[in-house]
Amino acid sequence: MAEDLVLDTAIRDWVLIPLSVVMVLIGILRHFVSKLMRSSQVPDAKIVKEGQLIVRARNLRSGANFIPPRSFRARRFYFSNEENGLLHVPKGQAPNPQAQMFSDPNMAMDMMKKNLSMIIPQTLTFAWVNFFFSGFVAAKIPFPLTQRFRSMLQNGIDLSTVDVSYVSSRSWYFLNLFGLRGLFSLILGEDNATDDTQRMMQMSGFGFDPTKSLGAEKDSLDIVQHDWALPKFEQRAEAVLRKVLS
Amino acid sequence: MAGHSESSGAEKKSGEAANEIPTFNAENLQTNMKAIYYSRTFLSIVGGVIAGILGFTSLTGFIFYFLVMAITSVGLIAKSGFSIHSYFDSWNRVIFDGFLSGLMSFVLFWTFAYDMVHIF
Questions:
Q1: How far is A84 from chain B (nearest CA, A)?
Q2: Is the ipTM, as predicted for this complex, more than 0.90?
Q3: Is residue A222 a part of any domain in this protein?
Q4: Which of A58, A86, A160, B46 has an alpha carbon 20 to 30 Å from B35's alpha carbon atom?
Q5: Does A190 contact B at CB distance below 8 Å?
Q6: Torsions phi, psi for B71 (to 5 deg)
Q7: B39 lies in a domain?
Q8: Dihedral angle over CA of B62, A147, B115, A6, nearest 10
Q9: Contact B44/A182, CB-based, under 8 Å?
Q10: How far is CA B99 from CA A82, A115, B51, in A?
C-alpha cells in the first residue's frame, strides 16, 4: 500500500477548488431558476375547503380540554356524525387522485419542471466532471475506510493498490452533492429547491388523497378522551398567586 | 458558540402548565426546531473547517465532531435559560436533532480544509 502519495498542487488549484465552487454556484442557480419557473396555480376550492376543515378539526382536538364536555360533544358530533358530519365521507364518492392528476395538465407540467430542473444540471455537472477530471486522485479523506468503500470513493480509478482514503474527482463530486445540502439550507433558507426531503414531501403530496386524511382525522377525533381542565384551574391559579405573594 | 443560537428567541407559551396539560404552540415549536437545525448545521460546517485546519485524522476528527455537538447542545440549553420544557417538548430535541444531517457537512468540510492545508 502506498504510504503517501504526493498530489500536485495544480490539482488543488484547478480541480478541487473549482469543482466545489461550481457545485455551490450551480446549487444557487438551480434554486433561483426553479423559483422563476414555479407557476402559481389556482387552488381548487374543494381542496382548500377540506384542508381548512382538517385544520379546524385538529384545533378542536388540541383544545378539547379547554371547553366543557357538553360543548366538546356537540362539536365532535358536528364534525363526525354518520349522517351529515363534515368529516364523514360517504363511500364511493372519493375522487380518484390518479384521474384527477391526468385531468389537470398544469399539475403534471409543474412536476415535470421540478424534475427537469433537478436532473438537467446534475447530468451536465456529472458529464463535465467526467470529461475533464477523470482518471486521477483529487483528494484524500482524513480517516481510513475499508475496502468496501473503494467503489464509492474511487469511482473511475481502477487501481487496487491505492489506499482507499484517496478520493477520485468523480467521487468528490458525489461527496459535494450530499454534503452541501446543509450549506444550501443555510444560505438559501428552508424551502430551497435542492432539499431532497422537501422534494419527497411534494412528491407524496402529489398523489395526496384528501378523503383519506378526512377519515384519519375523524378517527382520531373519535378517540379523544375528553377531560375538562378548567375546574382544576382555580386551584392552579390559587397556587400561582400564593407563590407570587409569598 | 451559544451566540449563534440567538434565533431561538421565538417564545413558546410558557411551560408552567406542563404539570398537567401540555400546551404547545406548534408553529413556535417548529421555529425553535429550525433554529436548532440551523445552529447545528452552521457549527458542523465551522467545526469541519477547524478540524481540517488543525489536521485531525480518523478518530480524533470524529471525537471533535461529538465535542462540537456537545458544546452546541450545552449552548442551546444555556440559551434557553436551562428550562428546556418552555421551548421544546423533550430533551431529545435539543441533544439529538440534526446530529446526522450535520455529519455529512462536517465530513465534507473537514476533508476540504484538510486537503487544502495538509495534503498538497
A1: 30
A2: no
A3: yes
A4: A58
A5: yes
A6: -65, -40
A7: yes
A8: 140
A9: yes
A10: 46, 29, 17
Confidence label for B17 from pLDDT (cuts 50, 70 and 90): very low
Residues spanned by the domain of A17: 9-245
Q: Is residue A1 part of a domain?
A: no
Q: Read off the pLDDT of residues A177-236 as tens digits, 9 standing for 90 and up.
A: 888 888 888 887 766 555 554 554 454 444 455 667 777 778 888 887 877 777 788 888
Kindly report, residue by residue over B29-57, the tens digit of the pLDDT. Answer: 888 888 888 888 889 999 999 998 988 88
Total domain count for chain B?
1
Q: For position B16, what pLDDT does the model report? A: 42
Nearest Cβ partner of B20 from A143, A181, A232? A232
Q: Which three cell numbers stand for residue A160?
A: 487496487
Q: Please give the residue of chain B at the shortest CA–CA distance from A197.
A: B101
Interface touch B41/A186, C-beta < 8 Å: yes
Report d(CA A35, CA A111) in Å as an integer: 13
What is the band of A81 on the pLDDT scale with cuts at 50, 70, 90? confident
pLDDT of amino acid B46: 92
Q: What's the structural domain count of chain A?
A: 1
Question: What is the distance between the alpha carbons of residues B39 and B37, in angstroms, rounded to a whole number?
Answer: 6
Give B57→chain A minimum CA distance, Å: 5
For residue B30, is it within any domain?
Answer: yes
Residue A186 lies in a domain: yes
Say if A2 falls within a structural domain: no
Asked whether the beta carbons of residue B57 and residue A142 sit closer than 8 angstroms, the reply is: yes
Q: Which residue has the higher pLDDT, A167 or B17?
A: A167
Distance between B58 CA and the closest CA of chain A, angstroms: 4
- Per-position DSSP letters for A21-47, written without gaps between them: HHHHHHHHHHHHHHHHH---PPPPHHH
Lowest mean pLDDT among A13-27, A29-43, B66-80: A29-43
Domain that holds residue B76: 24-119
**Would you say residue B4 lies in a domain?**
no
How far is Cα B105 from Cα A184, in angstroms, rounded to an integer?
10
